[in-house]
Amino acid sequence: MSMKIIVCKDETEVIKELCNLIEKQSNHCLEKSNEFKVGLSGGSLIKYLVNGLPSVKTDWSKWRFFFCDERLVPFDNGESTYGAYKGDFLSHVPVLENQFVVIDPTLEVEAAAADYQQKLEKYFPLGQWPKFDLLLLGVGPDGHTCSLFHGHPLLKEDKKWVAPIKDSPKPPPCRVTLTLPVINNAQYVIFCCTGNSKARIIKQILEGNEAYPLPAALVKPREGMLYWILDKGAAEFLDRS
User: Fold this and answer.
1) What distance in Å separates the CA atoms of residue 220 and residue 211, rounded to the nearest whole number?
2) How confident is the prediction along the chain (241 residues), in pLDDT tens digits per residue?
3) Spatial separation of the C-alpha atoms in residues 84 and 82, rounded to whole Å
4) Which of 38, 46, 142 is CA-nearest to residue 91?
5) What CA–CA distances, in Å, run from 166 to 11, 14, 206, 232?
6) Which end of the chain, C or N, has fewer beta carbons within 10 A?
7) Run of H or E including 52
8) What one-character DSSP code corresponds to residue 78?
9) Is it true that the peptide bond before 172 is cis, omega within 30 degrees of 0?
């Protein structure tokens, strides 16, 4: 694994750095294939993408969007990640709804996870872990990423591409999530964080006890590149000597 920590002066610079990397990776991938496969997360990332992606020069028609995790709620529910992208992202970035691969929120959580894996199988070869061109991840205040939580059995899942969780410590309780082997098979993984409210957990993730790592610290792409893009507030407690 190769990892790079980029510290920017403010959120505006974080967005610029993020979108420069996205543009570089999208065009690199599209030179070799006819599709750019991106895994999305929710939270602040949506705002960063809405503000930055309109300036990216790429062939948008060849992008395919997936979700690193999703809450099992209707798309018009405020907790739905796809619902948030549909409501804001689509009005700023020149892509279509049919470029998003989404869960079926009408199913029970185990069936929803199995259904989503079947949808992924249409885009990735069977018999091997799917290789996303880019995964865009966030970090919770407890160090979780996707819907992978500290101490949860799902951290040890090594068979499924997509797993259900119905006891999430953060509501809503039912979700589907990519598993760690899938995350760690990606070509590019980018964490993007701003603000000093996450400074202590980021220090713990990047410099903490490796014997008891937080979920975000377990993201280590086997053959890919890992980026942490932070503003000065989020990087406040890192040892940068």
Assistant:
1) 15
2) 699 999 999 999 999 999 999 999 999 999 999 999 999 999 999 999 999 999 999 999 999 999 999 999 999 999 999 999 999 899 999 999 999 999 999 999 999 999 999 999 999 998 999 999 999 999 999 999 999 999 999 999 999 999 999 999 999 999 999 999 999 999 999 999 999 999 999 999 999 877 789 999 999 999 999 999 999 999 999 987 5
3) 5
4) 46
5) 34, 34, 28, 36
6) C
7) helix 44-52
8) T
9) yes
Straight-line distance from the first to the last Cα atom of the chain, in angstroms, rounded to the nearest whole number = 22
CA nearest neighbour of 144 among 224, 198, 103: 198
Give kind and range of the element (H or E) at residue 32.
Answer: helix 11-32
Query: Per residue in 213-228, is it b (16+ CB within 10 Å) or e — as a string?
Result: bbbbbbbebeebbbbb
Within the chain, strands assigned E span 2-8, 36-40, 63-67, 69-71, 134-137, 162-165, 175-178, 188-193, 225-231
How many Å is the maximal CA-CA distance in the chain?
Answer: 51
Structure tokens at 219: 């993201």
Structure tokens at 214: 């937080």
This prediction has a pTM of 0.96
Q: How far apart are CA 234 and CA 27, in angstroms?
A: 29
- Closest-CA residue to 129 (of 171, 192, 77, 178): 178
